[in-house]
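chain below, 165 aa
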Amino acid sequence: MVSTATFGSGALLFAVGAWRDAVHISLASESAENLYPPVAFVVGILYIGHTVRVASGDSAWMVVSERGISVPSHRTATDLEWGIVTEVRPVLTKGDKRNGAWISVRPGERYEQIRVDESCLGGPATFWLIDFYHRHPELRAELGGTAVIRRLRDGSLVPSAHRDV
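prediction:
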């Protein structure tokens, strides 16, 4: 968050300095010189806006609740109710243009895949969390309390057959 804010501030300072002739850019093309300040200004505003959203807590990356899985920042999968989740499994992305670790909550439906490696829990823990509560609908009320934290800490989300011994 600090690096995002610093970069955004730097871009804004550059744009203001270029418009006030405090910063001089010497390029082969004069039209390119006129393009940098507005581009830097827009980029600075976007980065500062992102920092403010993250700092205020308005940009939750993923919410796993008793109702389902909500991924507000994801382009395609926004709200997935538990009723449509048929299976939770890793997605092979070899040869795919996507980066990161993805899981599928409805195999065969690309639009219902979630990137899990960006979670603060990490990819494996997020996978096991979603998989556990998919397999145990009777325990989904725990998602609103501290029991889920206990399960994350003691490893009970992971089936015993998959635990490292």
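The chain has a mean pLDDT of 80. The radius of gyration is 22 Å.
thats it, cya
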